[in-house]
Structure formats: structure tokens, C-alpha cells
């Protein structure tokens, strides 16, 4: 079976904040992507990377990397992610990824969402997950959280968790 994965990377202004130990959140996100996620997804037939953040309607175009070319993925992560700025349209990023994954009906599909925060554009992450289910998209969504997770974020994640298989 064909395997298709999409990586969503939060580029909102909060990703420019410094963590304890003087590491910038975006730098930590890049390290996690390169050291932990890319080796795990290297067997995928197709990997796409999409950036989101800035204005509330800003979800970047998909950068398709055929055959999960590790070097191209790593180069994109190291060189093509802009400086963090603006808002966090999490729900829009998820629904955009789902719309893209609909184009791969006979594939195993996964989304890797790398973010430090909560939706700041009025979207609803639960509705985005429901959108996937209502479109018949069987898809795993992996959330990689950067930084300290607030009690509110944990509560929202638990309340919004659903099995999309």
C-alpha cells in the first residue's frame, strides 16, 4: 500500500520564543524533525511539508518530496522555514492537509503536526478532526508539542481526541 505523510510546521510568532536552556522553539522543532521524525518516515512513498502561521488564513503551499528523499526534506527544514511571525491557524492547517490527503484515497495517510500552541484564529481543532472523519479520511494525526504544555491545552487535547481510523 502506498504511504503518504504530511508534516505541518507552526511558524507563528510564539515559535520564536526562547525555552529554558536558551534554545529557540523553532530550532528545537527543526532538531526533532531531523533527528526523530525524518528517520521514522523515510520509508514513505510521498512526504509533503506545509508551513502555517502568520495571518489567520496563512497555510503555505505543499512542498512535495517524492520517495521521502531525506536530503531534500532536511534541506527544506534547515533552509526554507521562515522566521516565526503572526498567528496560529491550527484548524485551518489540519483541514488543508485533509483536503490534500483526500487526493490519495488508497494510501495509508498520516499527519505530523509540529506546534507549540493553541489555535489563535478562532478555528476549532475538534471540528478539523471531525472534518477528516466526515470526509471518510482514515488518517493518523501525530502532534509534536514544543515547549511547556498548559493545563488548558492538555484539557483541550483530551476533549478533542478522536480515533480517525
Short descriptors:
165 residues; alpha/beta; five-stranded mixed sheet; 5 helices
Beta-strand residue fraction = 15-25%
| Average of per-residue pLDDT values | 86
- Side-by-side strand order of the widest sheet: 5-4-1-6-7
What class do helices, strands and sheet pairing give? alpha/beta
Distance between the termini: 16 Å
Radius of gyration: 15 Å
Number of helices: 5
| SSE series | EEEHEEHHEHEH
**Largest sheet report:** 5 strands, mixed
The percent range for helix content is: 25-40%
Q: Which residues form runs of ≥5 with pLDDT under 50?
A: none
Coarse shape: globular
Can you count the beta strands?
A: 7
Structure description:
By secondary structure, the chain is of the alpha/beta class. Helix content is 36%, strand content 24%. A 5-stranded mixed β-sheet has the order 5-4-1-6-7, with helices on one face. α3 packs parallel to α4 (125-134). The two termini are 16 Å apart. The mean pLDDT is 86.
Question: Helix and strand layout, with pairings?
Answer:
Elements: E1 2-10, E2 18-19, E3 23-24, H1 25-41, E4 46-52, E5 63-66, H2 70-79, H3 90-101, E6 107-115, H4 125-134, E7 139-145, H5 151-160
Helix pairs in contact: 1-2, 3-4
Concise synopsis of the structure shown:
36% of the residues lie in helices and 24% in strands. With 165 residues, it is α/β, with parallel strands linked by helices.
Amino acid at each position: 500500500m502506498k504511504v503518504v505523510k504530511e508534516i505541518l510546521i507552526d511558524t507563528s510568532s510564539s515559535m520564536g520564543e526562547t525555552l529554558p536552556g536558551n534554545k529557540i522553539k523553532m530550532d528545537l522543532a527543526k532538531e526533532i524533525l531531523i533527528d526523530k521524525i525524518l528517520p521514522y518516515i523515510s520509508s514513505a512513498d510521498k512526504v509533503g511539508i506545509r508551513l502555517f502561521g502568520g495571518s489567520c488564513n496563512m497555510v503555505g503551499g505543499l512542498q512535495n518530496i517524492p520517495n521521502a528523499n531525506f536530503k531534500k526534506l532536511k534541506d527544506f527544514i534547515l533552509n526554507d522555514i521562515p522566521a516565526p511571525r503572526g498567528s496560529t491557524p491550527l484548524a485551518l492547517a489540519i483541514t488543508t492537509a485533509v483536503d490534500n490527503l483526500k487526493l490519495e484515497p488508497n494510501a495509508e495517510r498520516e499527519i505530523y503536526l509540529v506546534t507549540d500552541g493553541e489555535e489563535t484564529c478562532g478555528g476549532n481543532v475538534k471540528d478539523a478532526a471531525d472534518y477528516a472523519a466526515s470526509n471518510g479520511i482514515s488518517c493518523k494525526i501525530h502532534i509534536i508539542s514544543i515547549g511547556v504544555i498548559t493545563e488548558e491545552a492538555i484539557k483541550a487535547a483530551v476533549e478533542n481526541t478522536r480515533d480517525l481510523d
